[in-house]
Specification:
The chain is α+β, with helices and mostly antiparallel strands. The protein is 51% helix and 25% strand. It has helices at 9-18, 22-47, 52-87, 89-92, 153-162; strands at residues 2-7, 96-102, 106-110, 115-119, 123-128, 132-137, 142-146, 167-169. Helix 1 (9-18) runs antiparallel to helix 3 (52-87). The longest helix is centred in the middle third of the chain and has 36 residues, at 52-87.
């Protein structure tokens, strides 16, 4: 199967957002929320002279509200960051025409700056989003296939199953 398509900034942004799990986001933001809660506890207890119990409640409330705010805002913040990253002049060179071939021996990819091959055993997962299939490899390299370039998704899924690639949907 050979797929030819144009990769643009929204394709890379969609792949990045799809590859980011909620649990990873929560784990990443907990330290910041803990610091905010600790500061609230210190202000309530040491500065305002509140009881340890009252200061603990204030710290817990600040922790929960700050973590909630970060979790509410992560997608738009992350999307803006990725968009700025891929629109930078040094990164724009990876945009443009790409060819992804799924052959008997593995995945062949050709783009403006690369020509690569990954054997099937190195493809660890094919993650389907609403608009893309993102191939993840044992080498932490991803390949983005916009589903707009796939005329028959059932055939693609059948091939991936035949090659024992783990398929996920998000």
């Amino acid at each position: 199967m050979v797929y030819e398509f144009e990769l643009q900034v929204p394709d890379y942004v969609a792949a990045g957002v799809a590859a980011t799990t909620t649990s990873r986001i929560v784990r990443g933001y907990i330290p910041y929320a803990l610091i905010a809660g600790l500061i609230a506890w210190i202000v309530a207890y040491a500065v305002n002279g509140q009881s340890a119990r009252t200061a603990s409640v204030a710290g817990a409330v600040v922790f929960a509200l700050f973590l909630g705010y970060l979790l509410f805002m992560w997608r738009s913040t992350f999307t803006k960051h990725l968009t700025n990253h891929y629109e930078a002049p040094g990164k724009r060179v990876i945009l443009g025409p790409h060819t992804l071939e799924l052959a008997d021996d593995g995945l062949h990819s050709h783009g403006p700056l690369h020509r690569s091959f990954r054997a099937w055993p190195s493809i660890t997962q094919a993650a389907f989003t609403g608009s893309h299939c993102v191939f993840q490899t044992a080498f932490s390299i991803i390949y983005v296939l916009p589903l707009r370039a796939v005329p028959d998704q059932d055939a693609l899924i059948a091939l991936l199953r035949e090659k024992h690639v783990r398929i996920t949907r998000s």
